[in-house]
Amino acid sequence: MIITKQGRRMFPFLSFGVAGLDPMCHYNIVVDVILADPSHWRFQGGRWIPSSRADTNVTGSRVYVHPDSPNTGAHWMRQEISFGKLKLTNNKGAYSNSTQMIALQSLQKYQPRVHVIEISK
Q1: Which band of pLDDT confidence, cut at 50, 70 and 90, is reported for residue 121?
Q2: Which of 35, 55, 67, 114 is 20–30 Å from 42 (CA)?
Q3: Which residue numbers delimit the T-box domain (predicted)?
């Protein structure tokens, strides 16, 4: 997927169902993105090849809180949870002015992770 400074919606977007939550407790649903491979990649000779070591000390926003958060376990289990509005950007300053974007570096492989976090009272 090609990312841009203004942001591009993740495709395919994340969509899943959850079960086993306490219907009365409140939860946040969060997506973060971690580096899946220690290499930069480039397209050469009709295929992607690793080219150099990636910088693992990059700061930026790699967390996205679902817009329905926080909500009850009953709400989350009622229907499929979709992250269709999540955008990816390569603009390092995006985390300061947008809660809908995750800032990443171009030409690297990433893996999204979903967290269900119970809110303590």
Answers
A1: low
A2: 114
A3: 1-121
